[in-house]
DNA sequence: CTGTTAGCGCTTTCAT
DNA sequence: ATGAAAGCGCTAACAG
């Protein structure tokens, strides 16, 4: 036997469907005993409201769409965790759509969500958000995270430039002078901003106009490759600042291979503070990933309920997390390997 | 102006809504020029089909619900990644619902998905699946992952007993005899099975009937605490087998604190092979997490389309991943810290 | 090939 | 307090 519908319940309770709806949704204008009868009937039939029909009729899906780029593991789980926590606290579901490379995919993903969600959280550091918004279903509120934001659309950004500057100053402060930067993939907003911050800071605080920059792509392998190239090229550096933690880890692996000690000979720093960074004692800039996810959902749901000003861009400053890969100070024991 | 509906497009193209539907859904019985006119009108109005209405009318949501326990970061992202990949390849969305502790939450989460999804993937190692299924919306196909499966329901399981046995034999094979096990939370299926496998294997292969078992809860802190207790108690062991990687990491931290060398004095092993395990050179049992997620979705969608036999339980054997925390053989350089 | 129409399951006026 | 009926936006017979 198929799932019971509201009509089955109505028949069973010998009332109209309207009364069932009222009874089950806690309306006031219904007699207590009528409600009881309805509840009993629903219970008996194992009735569960059809959320799809409900949202069509109410024009409210109680779901928010999440469109993400192909994120690395820990970053992904952290941001989704943050969103999920906030969403379920507010009675919303999360409809996921990891998207891949190009704008077309993204647009497709967005369109597929129309009529399923009340709003969107879009993270697309590698795309033109303006172009994206243009192809977005109209009238669907959205919060952009780490996007090349058009002004006017609510957006959450990480202060990558400031973060890179902080890191450079930390490295300079520990006596490093020849600092190389390994970049993220070209076209990626975070990568570009971190690079810009690095350049700016090196010029301003170290008087270096043309610091060493190695191309990368946020993957561990790219970090290792860049480091090997650096060593093979005989470049003399005393610090490597990678645009994210995964690459920094790659750098460390390559340095170990080459017998270069960290941080004695070369200091290594990353960006993001993914959980694994802590175990590897990697100095990095902590980005409150889960917090940003939660905040994006908060802003979106506030916007949906009319509350909260759809205040435009909000900037989040990452925090410097100093660990052993840039300071020899505290010698720690090591798990032998 | 609100989003255009199919009627707006019909009016614009001067055809009936049926024709619009046909044109946009690639039906055959429609003249090419009519279709062109419809497509043009849709384009002009920026029409995007309302997925909610569509699924109500077709009785097909093209979405699958995912109900997960509160998983640790890497495990979570891996399994969701596996599901997402498979789901989007098959034109399905993922509706997420991380659930917390009790059965009530889980039931609530499940009911909230009725009418939004075509099927469910449920992972609930800490709950009674039978009880859960009873409270599940009827007629909604489901695949259970790591659940106390009722026979009859499609299920995916990890061979925890066999995995634990493999690990114990590996440890015995490297000359360890006094092996302690740190368990997961009580009531958790994986935890219980791993413990059972440990006991069984110790009895069978080491002739130990009552091996040392320390209670834990899958968290890093629990691993550290158990280890500290072990040391404080003056117990003499030469290996610690933690029921998951996070706890194994906690063990290693506590051992380092206490100045105990790994693996010389005490070997450490975990279970799961989360990515961080690799960096820490932790010996562990590799569970193909993403693969299981993908497979769950595959089985579910096959079931939805009538394809594939809803074959009941499927068991996946984890693989032993030997690394440095159990073998002193290959000395590796270390990133200084 | 195209249009008319009856739902999908629910909420919500509008009467009563 | 309750019921009848009109949609929400779309698909799918059923007629032409």
From TrEMBL, chains A, B:
PROSITE patterns assigned: HTH_LACI_1, HTH_LACI_2
Keyword DNA-binding, does the record have it?
yes
Keyword terms = DNA-binding, Repressor, Transcription, Transcription regulation
Give start and end of each HTH lacI-type domain. 4-58
Q: Does the keyword DNA-binding apply?
A: yes
Molecular function GO terms recorded: DNA-binding transcription factor activity; transcription cis-regulatory region binding
- Taxonomically, the superkingdom here is Bacteria
Pfam family name, one: Peripla_BP_3
* Protein name per UniProt: LacI family transcriptional regulator
Supply the source organism for this entry: Sphingomonas xinjiangensis
Kindly list the organism's lineage: Bacteria, Pseudomonadati, Pseudomonadota, Alphaproteobacteria, Sphingomonadales
């Amino acid at each position: 036997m198929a799932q019971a519908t509201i009509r089955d319940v109505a028949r069973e309770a010998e009332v109209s469907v309207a009364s069932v709806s009222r009874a089950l949704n806690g309306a006031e204008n219904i007699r207590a005993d009528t409600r009881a009868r309805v509840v009993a009937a629903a219970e008996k039939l194992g009735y569960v409201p059809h959320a799809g029909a409900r949202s069509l009729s109410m024009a409210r899906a109680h779901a928010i769409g999440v469109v993400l780029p192909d994120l690395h593991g820990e970053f992904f789980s952290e941001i989704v965790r943050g969103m999920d926590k906030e969403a379920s606290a507010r009675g919303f579901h999360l409809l996921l759509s990891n998207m891949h490379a190009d704008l077309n995919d993204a647009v497709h993903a967005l369109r597929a969500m129309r009529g399923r969600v009340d709003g969107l959280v879009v993270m697309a550091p590698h795309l033109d958000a303006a172009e994206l918004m243009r192809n977005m279903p109209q009238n669907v509120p959205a919060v952009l995270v780490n996007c090349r934001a058009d002004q006017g659309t609510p957006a959450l950004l990480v202060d990558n430039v400031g973060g890179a500057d902080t890191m450079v100053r930390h490295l300079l402060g520990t006596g490093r002078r020849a600092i190389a930067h390994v970049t993220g993939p070209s076209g990626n907003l975070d990568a570009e901003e971190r690079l810009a911050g690095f350049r700016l800071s090196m010029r301003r605080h170290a008087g270096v106009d043309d610091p060493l920059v190695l191309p990368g792509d946020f993957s561990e392998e790219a970090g290792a490759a860049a480091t090997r190239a650096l060593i093979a090229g005989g470049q003399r550096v005393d610090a490597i600042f990678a645009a994210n933690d995964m690459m920094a880890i790659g750098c460390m692996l390559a340095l170990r291979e080459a017998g270069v000690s960290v941080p004695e000979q070369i200091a290594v720093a990353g960006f993001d503070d993914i959980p694994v960074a802590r175990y590897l004692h990697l100095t990095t800039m902590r980005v409150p990933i889960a917090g940003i996810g939660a905040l994006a959902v908060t802003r979106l749901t506030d916007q949906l309920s009319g509350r909260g000003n759809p205040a435009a861009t909000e900037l989040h400053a990452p925090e410097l997390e100093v660990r052993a890969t840039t300071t020899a100070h505290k010698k720690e024991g090591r798990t032998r390997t």
